[in-house]
Amino acid sequence: MLNSSDTREQIYRYVEQLSQERLAVVLDFLAYLVERDNKLICI
Q: What is the pTM of this model?
């Protein structure tokens, strides 16, 4: 398993290869994950 720094670097490499349309999908997905995490913290 990658450490946090390596994971972020790998994500960055993938993101750099995406089209603008795909980046919008990634942004929506990340927003969803953050929202879910925030809801879990509030429980």
A: 0.74
Q: What is the DSSP code (8-state) at residue 21?
A: H
Question: How many beta carbons lie within 10 A of that of residue 9, not counting itself?
Answer: 11
Q: What is the pLDDT of residues 4-39, one digit of tens each?
A: 999 999 999 999 999 999 999 999 999 999 999 988
User: Where do the H-state alpha helices sit in 1-43?
Assistant: 4-15, 20-42
Non-local CB neighbours of 23 within 8 Å, separated by 6+ positions: 15
Longest pairwise C-alpha distance within the chain: 37
What is the token pair recorded at 33?
A: 């994950």
CA distance 42 to 18: 33
